[in-house]
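Workshop exercise sheet. Pairs work together: one partner reads the sequence aloud, the other fills in the structure field after running the prediction. Swap roles for the next sheet.
Pair: D.N. / O.F.
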Amino acid sequence: MATAPPFILGKQPGSIGRLSRIKRNETGRCMTSSVVTPLVLRRSYPRDRLCVFDAFASAHAMEQWFSPASDIATKIIEFDFRSGGRYRIAFSLPDGTETSLRGEFTRIDRPIQLCFTWRWEKPDPHAGLDTFVTIDFIDKGAITEVVVSHAKMEDSEARDRHSAGWWGALERLHAWLELTTVRTE
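Structure field:
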């Protein structure tokens, strides 16, 4: 007769719960944080895949729509759109403060996938933490589904904040695509 497996440290075998990792902040001090489930968002656009992909491939286009809200201005400071290329983006908030992020493009597979690192700069509360973004562009005929996966966030607060920001940006992309013809090469 089989018996139920014993509980180990209050958990059933195979139940890992939240994982913890030790990392260092910008001052070099060790911090423990939880690895949370990656943020995954899906949004469909009534445009072909190349058109939607190219909205992410142009600094000029990104300045028009890549913002969590219409009252937050975006300035592309650096944008070297190639694998290994770097980017830096500044956001001007309604209260007059600025925040910025930077990263590196790690994979560009036009028009299928875009991958890059994401790091907020000071004074942002999440400054110095490296996260990773993968954007998949799925061809569904006359519609393109965009799947944004944002991983390696330190806690659910960061994930929730980024969820709101990404949703805002994806909605702004929809409005921008309705008004714009993206040049594809």
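Discussion prompt: The CA atoms of residues 68 and 164 lie 7 Å apart. What would you look at next?
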